[in-house]
Amino acid sequence: MNILTTGMGWIDHAPGGLNRYFSDYSKAMTAAGHDLRALVTAGGGRLTAPSYVEAVPGSGEGAGTWARMRAFRRAVGSGTGGAWVPDVYNPHFALYASLVNRGALSQDIPIVTHFHGPWAEESMVEDRGASPARLLRYRMKKSVESLAYRRSDRFIVLSRHFARVLERDYGIPGERIVRIPGAVDVERFRPAQDISRVRAELGIPEGRKVLFCVRRLVRRMGIDRLIRAMAEVSPSHPEALLVVAGDGAMRGELEQLAGSLGLGAQVRFVGRVSNEDLEKWYQAADCSVVPTVTLEGFGLVTVESLACGTPVLGTPNGGTKEILEPFAPSLLFADDSASAMASTIERWLGGRLALPAREQCRAHVLERYTWVKVTEQVTEVFNAATSSRRRRSAR
Questions:
Q1: Please, are residues 40 and 58 in contact by the beta-carbon 8 Å criterion?
Q2: Which region, left, alpha or beta, applies to residue 34 given φ > 0 means left and ψ of -120 to 50 means alpha?
Q3: Which phi and psi angles does 393 have, rounded to 5°?
Q4: Which of 62, 105, 201, 238 is 20 to 30 A removed from 168 (C-alpha atoms)?
């Protein structure tokens, strides 16, 4: 099947959950035998991107929002002609799909949209305010999203949580939404053969209990609450070490918070890490922590950690709950407050909460979250949407 897909950015140039999913998804669909063409924003070196990835001209740094939207519309239009014709158009980011209408696509090409989250609402959460200017930006983004979604034949979501968001906030009928959980590259993310050696390479002192948290450092990720939880835990468990990987607007504020709470020896910020070091941190940690407060659509970091054999403690929000509850409900915090996080972490450190074995963690991923399973299910959705669109076009 010929698949024309549009993302946001490429993972090697713009780290993030959506870009990680889009990168691995494109690779998996290509490996499954599909002829895929992936369009992403221009910018950064192109040496590491596969041949099926193309940078959209005019969408790089310095281009305004409307310029990028128009650039993607032109690119999609040019991708539907010539010798290569797509069977399906599969956008992953509403902004870059909003101007793509039936004037750019043939009537028999269905639009199957991957919904990765409410873009407008995420902005409101991070803005933490309702000034007139912010409300205007929110309404504009919501309009852009709604425009893109009105044109979609089917939707793919990674969690039941985001299926509910699509129905409730965008008025999408449930019968047009298909839940297909995310997946992880289980060959890349796997347990270490020698954990002691990996811990030594990362400079982890002997005797420390390592909690690893990799997130974009923004408000909704709840890392400030996790740091406050560490302040409650550390007096009785000084061996606990929280390692925070990632970057974002809150980094300075979070570092200042850790310092003000006297956690210089208990919280370590390592910034943005390479793909290789990310795997090592998962492997070396005693557990990972996902403290997200809201809008956790799936939780790719959760399955990455489990694939490496490392259990995950997480808030009972969105996709995190859907992954952990059927596996080990005790891994979920009672809620997303600092005190709830501290209570569970303290019980674990104090020996009153047993974490699943590394073999169990990986087995959970192999059973549910592999790309082989995902590509089969996505292909079924594409085939159904293509058949339906062609029948309607023939009338």
A1: no
A2: beta
A3: -70, -25
A4: 105
Domain coverage including residue 308:
195-368
Residue 370 per-residue DSSP state: B
Backbone angles phi, psi at 194, to 5 degrees: -135, 95
- On the question of pLDDT at 76 being above 80, the answer is yes
Considering the domain architecture, whether residues 160 and 88 belong to the same structural domain is answered as yes
Looking at the fold, whether 172 and 295 belong to one and the same domain comes out as no
Give the number of domains in the chain.
2
Cβ–Cβ < 8 Å for 281, 298: no
Shared-domain flag, residues 40 and 95 = yes
Domain co-membership, 179 together with 129: yes
Are residues 363 and 387 part of one domain?
Answer: no
The partner residues of 35 in beta bridges, in order of sequence, read: 2
309-336 pLDDT, tens digit per residue, is 999 999 999 899 999 999 999 999 999 9
Instruction: Count CB neighbours of 81 within 10 A.
Output: 9
In a domain, 153, yes or no: yes
Report the predicted TM-score, pTM, of the whole model to 2 decimal places.
Answer: 0.89
- Highest mean pLDDT out of 37-51, 55-69, 172-186: 172-186
Closest to 212 measured CA to CA, from 319, 297, 140, 310: 310
What size, in residues, is the chain? Answer: 395
The letter for the amino acid at 244 is: V
Residue 338 one-letter amino acid? A
361, amino acid identity: C
